Predict the 3D structure of the following.
Amino acid sequence: MSPTPGGVVGAGRPAQARADWMDVLRGVALIAVVLFHAGTLLRFADLQVPEGLRAVNGAAAPLRIPLLVLLSGLLMPRSVSKGVRRYARGKLAAVGYPFLLWTVLYGLVYWPGLGVEALAWLVPSLLTGGSYLWYLLFLLVFYAAALVVRHLPRLPVAAVFLVLAELAPDATKHLERPAFLFALFLGGWWLAEHPGLLRTAVRSPLAAVAAAAVLGASYALLDMSRYGPRALPGTLAGALVLAFCAHRVARSGLLRPLRFTGRNSVVFYVVHFPVIYVLMRCADLAGVEGPVLLVVVSAGAALAAGAVLALARPRSGLVRGLFTAPGRWSASGAPVAAGAVGGPPRTSP
């Protein structure tokens, strides 16, 4: 049996159907990211985050970036099977390129008014993950590190990085956080290489109930709002509960928007923040009050902008160039086919 996530649903179904549950999970994680930034960016409108949203965002922390990283790890067997050269070109095209391009675009949006002297700290900060695009930078580093450790056993290496995360100072963005997330990445990779276990985990009601109990205990006893090894039980439990639910309903017509969001995750991720930021700045200039309404409008606008661009991407080379490197840098060395919805969805985060 091929050690890929495809074995979860079972043989006999097309490859696309076998990935539906993962697309749903990515969609859920992306919407959680959008809501988080719609709340945190209220500060640019001189407004406070509503307590209810603050609580929701805190509870959803393990369902945002950690879930996306875990899912990226699940796709590793398929990625590395392409060979080192195609693997590297694909990741640079689908992750490295949008990171650099949107770092520049975001810098152009954020920089006006700061003055030329601000460039001395702004440029290095942005290029080292000092913006919302840090996730893409970290993911690119994880893909590079995966080549180094690809011949080593996954779980022992993951354990080493969990120890490093525990030893690192708490809440350090470039120490504790990447070590913890890379451990999750390796854990997802290991699961993908054990399709029987993965199949059982996402199908078993008993496993889902046990995971829900662990998740509840984690929320009650641990700080789940931070990326660190102490959040590992709750993070894995939350991912399992969501995977169980997604697996059962993934092909529902009602979830088509979530699947679409998940398949085009890189588009929604890079687009949402600038849209929300600009709207918050405009709201501040207009003296708009009402944080709840502003969160709803800005999050809705960000998702709408992402949807429009995701729909346009397979039809427009110009739009496609906003998210994927030119064809000669792609994994196959050829431009993305115009009829491929969302381009190469399995290489996006």
